[in-house]
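Input/output pair, single chain:
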Amino acid sequence: MSAPLLQLQQVSKRFNDGDERGNVVALRDISLTVHEGEFVSVLGPSGCGKSTLLRIIAGLTAPTTGQCLYKGQPVNKPSLERGYVFQDPRLFPWLTVLENINLAGAGANGEELLNKMDLAEFGQALPHELSGGMARRVALARALAPQPHLLLLDEPLANLDVPLRQNLQAELQRIWEQQGVTCILVTHNIDEALALGTRLILLSKRPAIIRYDLALDMSFPRKIHQAQVAALKTQILEWMEVH
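Output:
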């Protein structure tokens, strides 16, 4: 097997919440290895530390103990090789769609990404002229513009209606398959985790530890009513109730 793309080695994160309760432990002794080409779904209850974990991988937050290695080197700052998609699109309101995408260094690639995201007619539009789903696609295109090796997805489809969410899930799967980018998706939506992942990491309540690391050896596309998928969902719900 090839060398790991990413390694988390006994990573813990403690925050000082600034009141008499003292420190809050978000993550405890997280060890995780990710290889190139995987699509890892990180599932856990709200507030368990999923986003903190992703921010450590991105280089936006430093672990309190342990270390995060990307291509064998310690992660201590953000890198365009690790694209990040936030839950909020965070587009610059004074820039056009194409300018927002090119801001990440796409250059001539910006027009191509517009076509891939079915946004070719909106390159000169401003963010306030876009629907919520279109803005999410622009944010995804911006993260893909520098051609990252690792795409970090922090609940980018949260709070969308079901049809739009399913359409964007299909778009993410297509990008993963066609571009070969490694993906780590943080979500609290079990259906989404099962629909997209080649692997599922289940975190406990805070302080988060890895409860289960499960290979999702099922063909795509997946539907939640399929027997194998439905059985897994039931099992995961039981695990989450216990932990």
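The chain has seven helices and ten strands. The first strand starts at residue 6 and ends at 16.
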